[in-house]
């Protein structure tokens, strides 16, 4: 038996609501804060082995926050779940499920000792105090393993997010000029995403020029872009909840200097080597080493302080299982070299699908060779 929690909305409405990715992945429900999914595979009633609990209707509150559907055929058809109840019924239904199962599986991610425990663990501790013989079992890697292997539909969503992201990067290369503000570049990119059909960003756009290109998570985006400098543009659109994550480093004046080109080609060589290593059975640290060795050999080991990449999906930094890459995994590959004294920060990032036949770059349509970038910017 297991519980998966959607999570609560921001009571001050300062941030849009988004359910926990586990809950969204299992249910597709994105607009029910406080919902809980009960998985009870030993229930003698097949229709009750998956039960969805939603907060009770509150007509007064919903005048402010929006209409919610009553439990009925329409809601069941929309969610694909037959057994839907209100959360005030969860305690009464959890008790017989726990007595029957005896094994309470933790599916939500575990917390470090400095943070509150996950909601399922908090509830299960109380259940075990009341139902003798129950045991809490760590299954927190299960959904991580399942989510890491993307279905064809999930890959299609990520790939489409990448196509929309490509629109933004093409606009960036076409409009980038000395004297424009970093925010102007950000705005151009994000407007292209919206025109392409994206409603959300995968994360806050990084558009750092000159020295700012060497700041890994720079978010000021308020400085003037100078002739002769580089700008590190790290951005991505979302499509149907799935993220793209792409970085390109562009010459503000349209052409790389000899030194910039030297470092850029080295980073690109490292990225191509790491992409080539993205095969089933490899671990991320092995992929990292395939590219990092090239940078280290060139004498820039200390100038590459971050990891080579991460899993990508419903979350931009998607959950990572403790296992090697499997067919269907989608990861980012993003080596970089950062030289603050030279005002040079170069990162190149693409989204890569792991397949039996070798890696497939989902964002390979976005120019990244020196020649292609300079050619597009000349136009």
Report on the architecture of this protein.
With 379 residues, the chain is α+β, with helices and mostly antiparallel strands. The chain has helices spanning 21-27, 59-65, 73-79, 90-101, 119-130, 140-148, 152-175, 182-195, 258-276, 284-297, 370-378; strands at 2-5, 36-39, 50-54, 83-86, 103-106, 135-138, 206-209, 230-235, 238-239, 242-243, 246-251, 330-333, 336-339, 344-347, 350-353, 360-361. The protein has 2 domains: 2-138, 3-Layer(aba) Sandwich (Creatine Amidinohydrolase, Chain A, domain 1), CATH 3.40.350.10; 150-378, Creatine Amidinohydrolase (Alpha-Beta Complex). It is built from 11 helices and 16 strands. Strand 13 (336-339) and strand 14 (344-347) form a beta hairpin. Helix 7 (152-175) crosses helix 8, helix 7 (152-175) packs across helix 11 and helix 9 packs antiparallel against helix 10 (284-297). The relative contact order is 0.11.
How confident is the prediction overall: mean pLDDT?
Answer: 96
Arrangement of strands in the largest sheet? 1-2-3-4
Portion in strands: 15-25%
Number of helices: 11
CATH class of the largest domain: Alpha Beta
Relative helix content: 25-40%
CATH superfamily of the largest domain: Creatinase/methionine aminopeptidase superfamily
Taking all Cα atoms into account, the compactness measure Rg is 24 Å
Coarse shape: elongated
The counted number of beta strands is 16
In the predicted model, the low-confidence regions spanning at least 5 consecutive residues are none
Give me the CATH architecture of the largest domain, please.
Alpha-Beta Complex
